[in-house]
Specification:
Elements: E1 3-8, H1 16-29, E2 34-39, H2 41-44, H3 51-67, E3 75-79, H4 85-96, H5 100-104, H6 107-115, H7 123-137, E4 143-145, H8 151-168, E5 176-178, H9 213-222, H10 238-251, H11 255-261, H12 267-291, H13 294-323
Helix pairs in contact: 3-12, 3-13, 4-7, 4-13, 7-8, 9-12, 10-12
Length: 327
């Protein structure tokens, strides 16, 4: 069976973009692949974190995985820092495969460092794409379900795998990114040019998975729309196109059917119904989330780490032999 791997950082508020762009795909793929899903806490500390909040978010993100449909009986779920081979492989790739030129091309470092100061940005923020490559390559991953903005990172993993294989012989599988058309990049409610992001300066940018009913309705009412009043799916109406994508993905309705439903109606009717669709998705999710205990999550993560570590140690033994370490 082919293998898939992905993960989400336990920082900020997980939102509809995280679900529709990535986690929704994970749920479907766990029936088709040997699936490994990680809470990537090492990536989270590339920017400053409050320790108590980080611990809480690690458990909460795991609960969200489960409440959204990731089944620990089908998939391996664990916390990245519990498997030290991730950082070990990252260092080796830094030394034998990664190049400064590769890292300087990574757009996310440019974007994130620009929000503060590139001079004050951590080395980890600059280098975390190599850690992401290590995450993927460590588990012989064939397919990586990602949002469109993460495809560049999978391409780096492919590059580093090919370089290592060329120098030391076949060691790593070269992974492929997987994304859906409509869900590949959910854009911000306040700016359809920028993706929905938990690091956005305004909470009106996204609908958090834990937002309550009134907050959801308020955010959707305030969501940016395009000129005109017709509810049509068009590249000339990027804000409305984004909202229709969300409606379609959550409701299961075809885009053409949504357009037909709103012939002769305006944005107000559409937004009101979109809020209902979002709430109908969030309410059962939040109920499931509330029923999952911390103890249950900790046991799932403990079991997952054991499984992941066995696989990671096997891969690292091969890597060390290839580069000349004494085993």
């Amino acid at each position: 069976m082919k293998k898939t791997f992905s993960g989400v950082q336990p920082s900020g508020d997980l939102h509809l973009g995280n679900y529709l762009g990535a986690i929704r795909n994970w749920v479907r793929m766990q029936d088709e692949y040997d699936a490994t899903f990680c809470v990537v806490d090492l990536h989270a500390i590339t920017v400053e974190q409050n320790p108590d909040e980080l611990r809480r978010r690690i458990l909460d993100v795991t609960k969200m995985y489960i409440a959204l449909g990731i089944d620990p009986d089908k998939s391996t779920i664990f916390v990245q820092s519990d498997v030290v081979e991730h950082t070990e492989l990252c260092w080796i790739l830094n030394c034998v495969s990664a190049r400064m030129g590769d890292m300087e091309k990574m757009t996310q470092f440019k974007d994130k460092s620009a929000r503060g100061s590139a001079q004050r940005a951590s080395v980890g923020l600059f280098d975390y794409p190599v850690l992401m490559a290590a995450d993927i390559l460590l588990y012989d991953t064939n397919v990586v379900p990602v949002g469109e903005d993460q495809v560049q990172h999978v391409e780096l993993a492919r590059t580093l795998a090919r370089r290592f294989n060329k120098k030391f012989g076949d060691t790593f599988i070269v992974p492929q990114p997987k994304l859906t058309k409509e869900g590949k990049r959910i854009m911000g409610l306040d700016d359809p040019i920028k993706k929905m992001s938990k690091s956005a300066t305004s909470k009106d940018n996204y609908i958090a998975l834990m937002d309550d009913v009134e907050v959801v309705r308020k955010k959707i009412r305030k969501a940016v729309t395009d000129s005109g009043s017709e509810v049509i799916y068009s590249d000339n109406k990027p804000a409305l196109q984004n909202l229709i994508n969300i409606y379609s993905l959550l409701s299961g309705k075809e885009i053409a059917d949504i357009e037909n439903d709103y012939i002769g109606k305006g944005y107000g009717d559409f937004k009101s119904d979109l809020a209902d669709v979002v709430i109908a998705f969030l309410k059962p999710f939040q109920e499931k989330f509330a029923k999952i205990s911390d103890d249950e999550v900790k046991q799932i993560l403990k079991n997952g780490a054991k499984t992941a570590k066995i696989r990671a140690q096997e891969k690292m033994k091969l890597v060390k032999e290839k580069i000349g370490f004494v085993i």
